[in-house]
Amino acid sequence: MIFIRFFDFLLKKKIKEDNSMKYLLVGLGNIGDEYIDTRHNIGFKIADAVADKANAVFKPGKLASMANFKYRGRQVYLIKPSTYMNLSGKAVLYWMKKLDIKKSNLIVNVDDINLDFGKLRIRKKGSDGGHNGLKDIQNYLGKDYNRIRIGVGNDFHKGQQVDYVLGEWTQEQKEALPAIIEKAVNANLDFVFRGIHNVINTYNG
């Protein structure tokens, strides 16, 4: 009986350790060809770039496309919700539960009109900032989850916000995007290996 209890203790400890080595990286966007090159879909672009760097392939799944790979001994999962932006929280919660991901091991990549184009801002918690994707995630998880906000600028007139975020990049922005996406990819991978505090100190701004 004592041996059985000790075995159960070791098994539970192993499950807990395995759980701490699993990470979920989320890229927010809208599905559909008409949204591929829009500002609102930069989260998808970053997720695609992470997958490319890791030689991982997205496959259709429930509420999201999912890819997975190993990175420095950690198991990493990538998702791109297929629920459209304003229902992103449902997909994030589903995959967190299915994969047994701790909230501290989750990070969300999202566009932000309140930041200058190309600027990154990493936070452990915060408001939704008027972003429908973050608003829905907050409904499920609360405000305390990691996020990488990628500035897309705010060069639009009053009442034109929707047209701007659902609009395509300017030529100048397209030329600058690869370096911005690469920086965001590195921030995601450093989050997995080095943790959120180091990423905040390294990449903010």
Task: Report on this structure.
The protein has 7 helices and 7 strands; from the N terminus they run αβαβββαββαβααα. It is α/β, with parallel strands linked by helices. It has a single domain, classed as Rossmann fold (3-Layer(aba) Sandwich). Strands 2-3-4-1-5-7-6 form a 7-stranded mixed beta sheet, sandwiched between helices. Strand 2 (59-61) and strand 3 (64-71) form a beta hairpin. Helix 2 packs across helix 6, helix 3 packs across helix 4 (132-141) and helix 6 packs antiparallel against helix 7 (196-203). The radius of gyration is 18 Å and the shape is globular. The mean pLDDT is 91.
Helices and strands in order:
Elements (H helix, E strand, L loop, with lengths): L1 H19 L1 E6 L14 H12 L5 E3 L2 E8 L2 E8 L6 H12 L6 E7 L7 E4 L8 H10 L4 E6 L9 H5 L5 H24 L1 H8 L2
Parallel strand pairs: 1-4, 1-5, 5-7
Antiparallel strand pairs: 2-3, 3-4, 6-7
Helix pairs in contact: 2-6, 3-4, 6-7
Fraction of residues in helices? 40-55%
Structural class: alpha/beta
C-alpha Rg (nearest Å): 18 Å
Q: Can you identify the CATH superfamily?
A: Peptidyl-tRNA hydrolase
| Distinct helical segment count | 7
Task: Note poorly predicted spans.
Answer: none
Shape: globular
The CATH architecture can be given as 3-Layer(aba) Sandwich
Name the helix and strand elements from N-terminus to C-terminus, one letter apiece: HEHEEEHEEHEHHH
Can you summarize the main beta sheet? 7 strands, mixed
Name of the CATH class: Alpha Beta
Strand-residue proportion? 15-25%
Distance between the amino and carboxyl termini: 57 Å
**Mean pLDDT, nearest integer?**
91
The strand order across the widest sheet is 2-3-4-1-5-7-6
Annotated CATH topology: Rossmann fold
Number of extended strands: 7
Q: What is the domain tally?
A: 1
